[in-house]
Amino acid sequence: MRANLFAPILIACLAVAGPARASSAAVDEYLLAVTHDLPPVAKEALQRIDGPPRQLLAVRGYIRADRQLTARWSWSAQEIRAYEASDEYRELLASIDAVRARFETQNPGYSLYANTTARSLDQQLQRWNSNPSVGVIAALLQQAALRELSGKDYPAHPDAKATLRFANFLREWRPTPAAPPLASPGLSLHGRSRAIDFQIVQNGRIIAPTEVAKVRSAWEDQGWARKLATAMRGTRFVGPLQSPNEPWHYEYAPGARE
Ligand SMILES: [Zn+2]
After folding, report:
1. Domain shared by 231 and 141, yes or no
2. Cβ contacts of 170 within 8 Å, gap of 6 or more
3. 235 and 127 co-located in one domain
4. Can you tell me the distance from the alpha carbon of 27 to that of 166, in angstroms, rounded to the nearest whole number?
5. Measured in angstroms, how far is the CA atom of residue 117 from the centroid of ligand 1?
6. Distance 146 CA to ligand 1 centre (A)
7. Domain-embedded: residue 199
8. pLDDT digit string (tens) for 114-148?
9. What's the whole-model pTM score?
C-alpha cells in the first residue's frame, strides 16, 4: 500500500526525466550515423574512446579532416621505428640541435628539451580519455548536440539528409573560449613528427613545461614564449600554435630551407 503513495511522484519524475533521456539516446543514434562513413582507422579509434561526449568531439575532428584524414593519420609503432632510421629523422634532430645551440647562445644558462619520439595513437587515445579540458569541451558539445537535435525538426531516426545536417553541425561547432587542447586521436601532428614541443631547461630542470596552467606564469610573464620564438626565426619550425595558445608547440616542415 505504502508504495502506491509514491507511485504518482515516481511517474512525475519519469515524465520529467523522460524527454532528456530520449534526446541523449538520439545523440547516440546520430553519432553512430555520422560515424558510419568514416575511414576504418577512425572507426577503430572511436571504439577506444570513453563515452559518447568524447567520441562526439573526436568525430568532429575526423569530419573536419575530411579527405585528409588518412594521409594525416598517425604512424603505427612500426612506422615510427622506420622513421627513426631515416635521413629525414636525422635532419629533424639536426634542426633541433641548431635551434638549441642558438637558444643557448641567446640565453646563457638555459637550454631546450624536445621529445623527438612520435606520439603513437595509443598515447593520443590515453591523453584524450584522461584530459580534463577535453572532458569539459566534450560535455559542452554534447549539450549543443542535444539542443541541435531537439530545437530543429530532425527526424527521430537519422536518414541520409538529417545525418549530413548533423555532420555539418559538428563541423561548424566552435568551443568557447578555446579550442580543445588536443587533436582528435590519430590526427595529432605529433603522430607523424610534424610537430615538436620545446621546453625550457635550467640546470637540468624544466622551468617552462608543456602545461596550459603555466602559459601565463612561465611562458608569458617570464618571456620564454618570446625568447623561444626568437630562436626559431629562419628555421624549419613554424609557430607557435595560437589556438589553443601553446607557446611550446612548433610545426616542422621537413626539407624547408633553413
Ligand atoms: Zn604539441
Report:
1. no
2. 34, 56, 59, 60, 63, 141, 145
3. no
4. 10
5. 12
6. 31
7. yes
8. 999 999 999 999 999 999 999 999 999 999 999 99
9. 0.81
Q: Provide φ and ψ at 39, rounded to 5°.
A: -60, 150
For cell 577512425, name the residue: 42
| Separation of CA 211 and ligand 1 centre (Å) | 10
| Burial of 246 per CB tally in 10 Å (0-12, 13-18, 19+) | buried
In a domain, 189, yes or no: no
Q: What is the pLDDT of residues 210-251, one digit of tens each?
A: 999 999 999 999 999 999 999 999 999 999 999 889 999 999
Cα 241 to middle of ligand 1, angstroms: 8
Q: Alpha-carbon dihedral of residues 248, 252, 256, 258, nearest 10 degrees?
A: 30
End-to-end CA distance of the chain: 84
**CA 256/CA 258 separation, integer angstroms:** 6
Q: How many CA atoms lie within 13 A of 109 on its CB side?
A: 1
Neighbours of 253 (CB within 10 A): 13
Tell me how far apart the alpha carbons of residues 69 and 73 are, in angstroms, rounded to a whole number. 6
Q: How many domains does the chain have?
A: 2
How many angstroms does the Cα of residue 189 sit away from the middle of ligand 1? Answer: 8
Q: Judging by DSSP bridges, how do beta strands 249-252 and 195-202 pair with one another?
A: antiparallel
